[in-house]
Each structure stands twice: as structure tokens, then as C-alpha cells.
Amino acid sequence: MGVRIGQMETGRLNAITDVEGVGVGHTTLIHGDPPLKIGEGPIRTGVTAIVPHQGNVYLDKVVAAVDLSNAHGKATGFPQIECMGVIETPIMLTDTLNTWLVADAVLDYFRERYDTTPRSLNPVVGETNGDFLNDSFGRHVRKKHVFEAVDKARSADGRGPVEEGNVGGGTPMTGYGFKGGIGTSSRVCGNFTVGALVQLNCGRREDLRIDGAPVGREVKMPPQEGREPGNSIMMIVATDLALTSRQLWKVAKRAVLGLARTGSYQGVSSGDFVIAFSTGKVSPDNPIEKDYTGNIALGGGERFLDGVFRATADSTEEAIINALFKAETMVGSHGTRYALPLDQVEEIMKKYKRL
Amino acid sequence: MGVRIGQMETGRLNAITDVEGVGVGHTTLIHGDPPLKIGEGPIRTGVTAIVPHQGNVYLDKVVAAVDLSNAHGKATGFPQIECMGVIETPIMLTDTLNTWLVADAVLDYFRERYDTTPRSLNPVVGETNGDFLNDSFGRHVRKKHVFEAVDKARSADGRGPVEEGNVGGGTPMTGYGFKGGIGTSSRVCGNFTVGALVQLNCGRREDLRIDGAPVGREVKMPPQEGREPGNSIMMIVATDLALTSRQLWKVAKRAVLGLARTGSYQGVSSGDFVIAFSTGKVSPDNPIEKDYTGNIALGGGERFLDGVFRATADSTEEAIINALFKAETMVGSHGTRYALPLDQVEEIMKKYKRL
Amino acid sequence: MGVRIGQMETGRLNAITDVEGVGVGHTTLIHGDPPLKIGEGPIRTGVTAIVPHQGNVYLDKVVAAVDLSNAHGKATGFPQIECMGVIETPIMLTDTLNTWLVADAVLDYFRERYDTTPRSLNPVVGETNGDFLNDSFGRHVRKKHVFEAVDKARSADGRGPVEEGNVGGGTPMTGYGFKGGIGTSSRVCGNFTVGALVQLNCGRREDLRIDGAPVGREVKMPPQEGREPGNSIMMIVATDLALTSRQLWKVAKRAVLGLARTGSYQGVSSGDFVIAFSTGKVSPDNPIEKDYTGNIALGGGERFLDGVFRATADSTEEAIINALFKAETMVGSHGTRYALPLDQVEEIMKKYKRL
Amino acid sequence: MGVRIGQMETGRLNAITDVEGVGVGHTTLIHGDPPLKIGEGPIRTGVTAIVPHQGNVYLDKVVAAVDLSNAHGKATGFPQIECMGVIETPIMLTDTLNTWLVADAVLDYFRERYDTTPRSLNPVVGETNGDFLNDSFGRHVRKKHVFEAVDKARSADGRGPVEEGNVGGGTPMTGYGFKGGIGTSSRVCGNFTVGALVQLNCGRREDLRIDGAPVGREVKMPPQEGREPGNSIMMIVATDLALTSRQLWKVAKRAVLGLARTGSYQGVSSGDFVIAFSTGKVSPDNPIEKDYTGNIALGGGERFLDGVFRATADSTEEAIINALFKAETMVGSHGTRYALPLDQVEEIMKKYKRL
Description:
The structure is a homotetramer of 355-residue chains.
Chain A: E1 23-31, E2 43-51, E3 62-71, H1 78-84, E4 86-87, E5 91-95, H2 99-113, E6 124-128, H3 143-153, E7 174-175, E8 178-179, E9 181-189, E10 192-200, H4 215-218, E11 233-241, H5 245-261, E12 271-282, H6 305-326, E13 330-332, E14 335-337, H7 342-351
Parallel strand pairs in A: 5-6, 11-12
Antiparallel strand pairs in A: 1-2, 2-5, 3-4, 3-12, 7-8, 9-10, 10-11, 13-14
Helix pairs in contact in A: 2-3, 5-6
């Protein structure tokens, strides 16, 4: 549509896969129709895998950090990341109640695909709650779906353009009262790249802002059905700039700034988690043009982080918008979740001079 | 001007003093002209006192929490608030290098004004760096100025309308490249009130957003002088709703959402601190209209917090804008800091349909 | 043996079940012999359930807090406890690689046993690594074992004396180079009770202290086999004193003091987690005799916590010792783990005048 | 006396100054007699400076981390250390109510002694409350005393043996009901050194343990006077091993293990803070003998930290004991604080076979 968030340039794919080595794979499961019958369907779920590089992450761990912004969620693996400052598995995204079966399957993946039998392993699984459309309690994501997602993430396709919207872990999700799901974006900044990927399931319709325009309040839509729309968001930030876990912890916190700009108040029931990791492909020496730094005169040694912060907030903000732009109307267990009406959005954006 | 942030109503004064019992007092020191002579001037500084109630706070402590959002700052008293969940002194705001003398003077205040000689005391002093305009190293705020500010905060005037802009601790500060300083705002929400007060000294000009409109990029201004504009922001949130320190910790985090909406990326050198406190005048039983809650169906017992979160983000966002609207152009030690040109802002807001 | 840790009295059972309503159930699985064949055995594992009360914890949550002392571990559910200040499921303890299957089974338990189908659930599962004796990768704990443990915890037997040593989640564990496992203890303190239960799998032999005596350095034992002994400890603290989550957070940190007194240095690979919860049966008004408080003159309102802290550290210290005293020599996948030789310990304790 | 804590070797001086470049300076102020007259005396106070190296720390910052173990205290500078991972001033220790005047004087020190005028500075001042013996409210530590302490720390003498007991910031302090103050110790470990220095003002008499022996319960002393003995402890850990701030954060937490072993329950009113810093003189490649590591088989890359952890806990434990051994009986504002009776201690240690 031409919406442009911030002043930095996007990467070639405008996706987290612009960070070299990062791969994304989705397994999407859509079967059956309402009414809900627990254990049978309707099935509107899936799993998304993000690999930080193409090797065995357990053997070649990557530096990472987390922000538990509003930790009303079940994501696994976060305490150990805080303690050790690394991730050692692909990052998996799925529907809440699949979380533990997905974590368990990641263990098998290492044995069956890498021929590594870890004595211990810290699977990182993020989740949001898709039960408005999905038979969540049925937990329809199986080991084979997990394997399929990681296999795809490790393929050449996995390092290319990233499917967005109703795919993978994002399949049944809701964003700002509209159909949500997976979104991604990236920014190139001097000699490094920052990419974000979100699984969007949070926000209230009236709060939605796109590049500052009050889209949520202006869109005309059928009255919302009784059941509360989604909650929670998982935000993944990747960079090829070599950073310490303390620096990445601060990067992770900037993803929440991007979320705020799209309108969220981070409701009490929202599980808003961020993981930031570095592939460490490029060094932080002279990484950034002066134009992107806000604070040249102050603070000394870490001022290159300002560019990373900006790239993180902007790419997260845009990833959220991209999830809404790409998701399509879906019927599921408790009703219909409508896609953001792009024709209306275009009008609104023009009215508010954002296009 | 008519800018309206969010959908909730403001309090009578649109100030933190709408929270009953809260008082604000400023001591403003403006003397001398450039050039800078350390210890002599120019003096562009002051101190602001916020009292949570009209009694002796050391004896009647109030529940509180903090968020160390980007803790590149010297604020005192925060670790003990985290540990004990209370504040026991007025909250003081000043220029960075005055921090410790102000804290020390608060101790004297208790002895001299309350006839209380604490064995130990945890003065809470927030700061931002005003040295673009002020002889900061000269530390011109003295004990008498501290006393004057607290005395005012405890007077009837202190509980009325709050002066904003170039006053108190905010006197020399910068916001988004324009003249910044003190700003305040409030929201009324069902049976309770939330008020915010900020000492604004952060942000880069191009990033400024007012109610989503890209004001910073549109304003035409003389080229900025060599020295880096300000950094850091102190955000104080008060409510009369009885909350625990864990709940206030989450409230504090929502102030940062309001900051994000005005455009900040929280630069690496920015000291962005939040204190939230409760005077506990009203109970959280049935505190809030359904309209203000985003998440009725989920989450259970704490969903009333959603209204508090929204009121916090909105009043913080507006307090920042109010600081910019009220601050006036000032000449000081390293040059001139221009006020936000309100006539241009009005045009821009109209262009972007925000007025 | 007569070892007495600290100066407070133990409860009637000297167990976490002295806190009224708390129940404990173990499922212990011991089958097969070496050599290790992944997926077949030897099986030396199990699961322990701790219920904070006899009702449906999802519907009647209890106030809780955690300390992530050295979070090199996979425990689930901790971030949400930090955010919301409650637990809503039984606390489960098991071998590391069972973690996620156990968490998933807890979900089924609510549907099948309580007829509650949660939209979302935050299972709390703690783990330590038992693979020196157990076929850990085989993940031999199944849903039925989880159900059995929770069922027992909810029975009258579950509220009685607690089996210790090679039982439940503690079955294959190691403590200070000796056979470890489950241990428990309690303290009665004025009008309230504190109980601790640990799953002990950490420590180096030479470091073991019992009531200050250097038992680990004095015990004569066969030379240790090649494989590194265990790591990690899960510590659960319960009290019937009504506390806030902030207060329980501080209680949780005192469990680590008890651990320190038994000799641990909290190795970098150790997953040392604490959960503290309150059943809120008694109020903190006048809860404690003057004798137990260290700090009468200072600090004001929370000084009753001093007694809780002391009870927590002492009962955790003793729970660790009890695990060692009750565990028996076990042969498993990678060798033999010998029980602490109690006859030698008695001699050593006499030598050091601790008996 | 021959007490030996742990199994590692001490450095040449058994002091934090065994870490090359670290210097310590005390200014001790003892004047006047009871009764207390606020502003006049009796004066039993002082200030201790620890410099991490002999240069200008503001220009050459050192990597650092903190643990806010029980943050009921007024220490300044800790939030910025958490955020930035460095210290940029000497670490100062003093009596609580001097905290802010000392912080302010450190600012002057940079201008007057280093000819550096910082725009901003993060003075790190730790404190414990000495008002049992000292006219604390009188705040008798002045700028010249601060300068004197830092000057000494930067001299050749400052890098030699460290005075302990009633000196510097420790002058009026109490430990376990006996006279406390400053203590220090060190451990050499493979190719690196760890040193600890404490300002001891916490603990209850009956709880004191020396190398596990229950000294506090056995010592016979005159009945204690009415006023509550001290609270709080500041613990400083230095190493020449190059560590990240995340690693130093974990090191800082191990100081508390040493504290626990001397008997403290960390009372609710205790301000127990740790700062750990690295001078980075040696690299962590192969830093440590196998003998000192507890966890060879597990965990991978950071296992060298186990030796650092052990050295930290042991040297902190011994520093506390050394403070008690060196402090002498003192009369002050509210009574007499008796030194630990070393002749009795020797008997007790022999009885418990610790000598």
C-alpha cells in the first residue's frame, strides 16, 4: 500500500530473513468447520520455526536476551536465556496449549535430525491464544508438524521471503479485533541489518494506529461477536551485529516501543514477550551512519545502539502492520474474524495524509 | 489547542493534582547570561517537589513501584522502592548534578519542618541533564530551594493547577529538540483518577509525534546548534486507586507506552525512569466502566487494571505534549533552545486531521 | 539422628504438609537395569505433585512468587508467576526432559479430574537432571503418572507425612555427590507455619556441610565414577501466613540462604529455582514472637517477615539434609550413586560437636 | 587465629588489593563523647574509597554488575550499573546519612583532581547505618574527607595491606551484635585473583557462624543494651579476570552465599548490596585448575565461572569474619559495642574442631 514506518531503509525482503542465516518455516493446519468439538476441530493452528543460523544451534549457540514485558503467558525457555545469555534451539511459535508438546518435539528433532542427543535442552517456544477460531484444547500440532516447520526454516526457501498472516503459529490469531497472525519486517542500517517477526494476537479495535493514523476508530465493520478478541504478542528480533546479551536485552525492550505505536496498552491479560538474538556476523565497530543516531554527544561507547534501537522499534511496528495487511478473514470455532478492510484503510490513510 | 489524546476524560485540572492529596511545588532559578562560567552561571535550573499526600510521608508511607526503563541516570531511592514497595519522602525532580544535594536537603526538611529526625531515609530524587542551558556543574539548587518547593507542594496552591514548561526541575530541559520541561495531565476513569507528571528532556526532533501526526518532521526551524539536545525523562504516575506494588509496577511500565507514542526510541544515553504510587483513597472494587477495559473475557481478577493502564499511557503521552506546549524559548550556557512553534503545530495538526 | 537446624521448632510432621491444606504426592518409576538403551531404560524417574490446597487451584489461585537464583534450567510457568503473582496449578517436580510432557498432562488433569477446560493454563513444572541414573531422554513419565501424583497429593494421605529420598521427581537425583532426591522440613513460628520441600540434585561432595560440620570433606567413600554428579535444585516454600507476592519474593530469596549453608556454590550449570506461595490461612497481624525477630527497632511494618525468613532458610537447609539422610544407594544408567553413609555422618557430627 | 575458609589459597595480602590495580583508602573520624548532640557528636564515622584501577575511572570505565539482594538501603549509582554494565567512579562506603554528600563530593574530585568536568557522573556510594555509635544525622563526613580517602586509594599505600575493623565507612558499624566494620580477603585461583571487601553492619548475635561453628550462641557477653544492633552489609568483589557484566551479575550473587554462611538471614530492614567488577587484566581462556570446578561435564562455555563463584563466596565469608576479628570495642552515641572476644572464639573454634 505504500505505508512507510520510520526513516530507515528496509532490507531486500523486508523480512527477518534479511538477517543472513536466519530461516523461517511455517506449518499451517486448517481443517474442519464449526461447531467446536474438543479434540476434533475446527483446526486452525500451526507452528512457526525461526532458526538463527543454518547449523546445529545446540552446538553453536547464539547470544540472546529477552524482555518479559507483560509476562501473562506460557512461553518456555525464557529464564535460561536470562541466565546464560544464549539460545540453543530454533524459536518456535504456536497456539498456547500446544506449547509443551512443541517443546518436547524440539528435543526429538535434535536426536533425529542432527544426531545429537542432548542431556539437557532449553527449547524456546512462544505462544499466543488462538482459541477464538481454533480447537485449542485439542492440541492438534504434532511432532511431525514441528519437524516440518524446522525443516523448512533450514531450507533455501526458509531463508527467502516469509509468508505472513494466517500461517504457522499465527494461523488463528487476532490483532486489534481484526484477523492477525504472523508479520515480519526489516531495516538496514549502515553495515548491519535488524529484522523482526511477530505473532500478533493483541489489541483492541479502537486503539489501532497505522503510522499514527487512528485507523481502528475509523474503520466501519460489522458489530463484533460476543467473545473477546485475542490477546498477547510474541516479538522476535534478529540482528547480524555482534552484541552482548546486556545490549540485546535493551534491544528487546525497544520492540515494545514499536508495539506501543500501533496502539496497544498491553492489557493485563496479554502475554507480551520479546526475544532478541544476534548472529554476530558483523562487528559493532563503526556500524552506523551518523544520521541514525540520536545522541552523538552523550554517553560514549554504546551510542551505535541508538541505530539498532530505532531499527528494532520501526521493524516491529511494521511487522505488526504487515500481519494485519496479510491476514485474511477466517471462520472458526467461536465465530468469524474479519480481515482489516484494506480499501477502507487506504482511504483512512489518505484522509490522515499518511499516503 | 484542542489536541485530545485517547478516549478517556481528563480530570478537572488536567494535572497530577487531580489525584486528591497530591501536591506539586516548583522552585525556579533563572539568573545571569552566557557565557558559561562554572559556579557562577548562567543559572537555568530549579527543583520540583511532588507530595503524595499532605501529611508526613515518612510516617504515612504510600505504596509505590518503579520501572527502570533505560536506567542511564542517577535517580536516587529506586532500589529501596523496589524492595519495600513504598515511598517515604516527597518525590523531587531536578538537574542531574543537583541530585545528591537535593537528596541531602530532603533529610533536613524532615527534621526542620516535620520535627522528625529519621534514623534512615530514602529520598527519591529524579533528574535529567540540563547542561545545554544551565551551569549544571555549579549546582545552584540549595537547601532553601528544596524547602521552598516542598512547602509549596504542601500548600493549598500546591494542590491546584500545576505550572508547566520552564519551571522547577524542568527549567533548562529539552524535548525533541525543542524547549522542554515539566508537563502534566490526568484521566478520570470510573471511580478513580490517574495523573502523570513528566520532566521532559529526551527525544530527537524528527521523531516527535503529536497524537500520531509527524510534527517533528514537518516543523521548520533554524538549524540546530552544535551541541546535542537533551536526553532522559522522569515520569511520575499517581492514582487514588488502592493498588499493590506489583500492580503499580505494571502501571509504571505503561508510562513508557505513552512516551513511545510521542516518538522516543529511548536512546542509549537516556535515563528513562518511572515512579508510580497509589494514595489508596478508593478501592479497586468495581472501579471502572466496561467501556475502558479491553479484556473483559480473559484474565480474571485484575482486569480493572486495563483502565488504569490506558489512563497511564494517555496521561503520560499528554503530559509530554503539554510540556512542549508550555515551554518557552530560552537562552543559556551553550545556546538557544527554541519553543515548539505552536502556530506551525496547529497547521500541521490540521493538515493531518488531528484538529 | 538428632541434627537440629536453627532455633525454631519444627511442625508436627516436619514436612511441607504441616502447612494446612498442602498435599504432596509422588509417583516413582524404577524398572530395568543398565546398560542404558534410550527409550527402554533403565528407568529411574518419577513425578512429585504439591497442591497448595485441596480445591481447584485454577479457580482458587494462591499468591506466589519466584526467585530465579541461577536459572540454568527449564522450569515452566515462572514468568507468569512473576507477572501475576499467583499460581494456578499444582507444582510438579520431575526429571528435566519430562518437563514438557508433564506440563501438558496437567492441562488434561484439569479437564478430566476437575471438569474444568481452561482456555489457558500456566502449569508450573520444576526439574533437575537425573540422567546419571535414568534414561532421561526416554521420557518415561506419562500422563497417568502425573494424574497419579496429583491424585495422591489431593488425598488424605497426601496431607500426611511426606516420603523422602528416592521418590517422585527426586528418584534419580544426586546431592553433594551422594544419592539425593526429595526432602522436606517445616518450622512453626508464632501463629504461622513455614514448610519447604526440595528436589536436591546439586553440589560437590567436598562442599557438603551439615549444621556447619564439614561432612563432605570427612566422609570416606569409594572414588567417584567418571561422570559428573548432579546439578540443580528446586526449592518450594509454603506458608499459611497471608503475604503479598512482593513479600513472598523476598521469602523465596531466603531459601537460597539455606542452600548456601549446606555448602553449594551454585555452579554455573545449576538450575536453582525457588517458588514460594501462601495459602493465606492466617493473617500477619502479630504473627511472631519477639524472640524470632532480629530487627525490632528498625524498619517498621514488615518486621514480622524476619521470622518468616528465618523459618524459610532453616527449613530449606534441613529439607536438603533430610533428602540426603533418606535417599538410598541406587544403580542406574551410568553407574552407582551411593547414599550418604549415616554411620560415618554420626561420627563426624559428634567429632564436630554437632550431636 | 588460623581459621581457614574453603579450600582455595588466599592472595599475598589476603585483601581486595591483591587484584592488581585495586586500591583502598580510609578516612576515619573519631571525636567526642556521648551524650549524643545532633550536629556535634559523638563522631564515629568515616569514608572508604575503592578504586578499580589507578587511572581516571570516568575515562577508563570498568565492567561491573550489582546484586540488589535485599535493597533496603540508599546506595547510589546502582540502576545505571545495571543498565550500562560499568562503573565510572571510585566505590565509596560510608554511614547512611552521609551518602549524598559523599556522592556530591566525588563529582568535585573529578574536576579538582583529574581536571575532568563530567557533564554527568554516576557516583557509586554504598552505606550502612552507624547511628548506634555515631551522630549520623550530623553528617560529619565532608568533601575533604572524601578527597583524602580517594587520594589514599590511589597511592602506593592504597594498593598494599588494607586496614580492617573500625576504619573508614566501617568505623561505627556492628556485626552480629559485636563491633563490626571493614573486612577484606582474597583468593587466588589458577591465573586469576578474586578479592572481596565488606562493610559489615548486619546480623544477630546468636546467628554468627565462623567456618560453621556456632560462635554466636556460645560466646558469653554482657547483656545487650536496649537499642537494636546494626543492619545491612555492603559487599564489593573485584577480579582481574575479564568477564562480561552478565557474568559479573552472577558473581555478585555468590557474595550472598558467603554472607549466608556467616549466619545472616537478611533481615527485612537490611540493605544488602553487592557490586562486582572486573579489571580485565587476564583473559578467561583456561583460567582455572580442574580442582576448583564443580561441573566439568555439564554446561559448556562458562564453567570457568565455577572457580570464580567459589572464590567469591569464600573471600566474602572470610572478609566478614576478618571485620569482626579486627574491630575493637567502641563507645558511642547510644552505648558500647563490644568487640568479638577472640579468646572465647579461639576456645569455641577448638571445641568445634575448627582450629
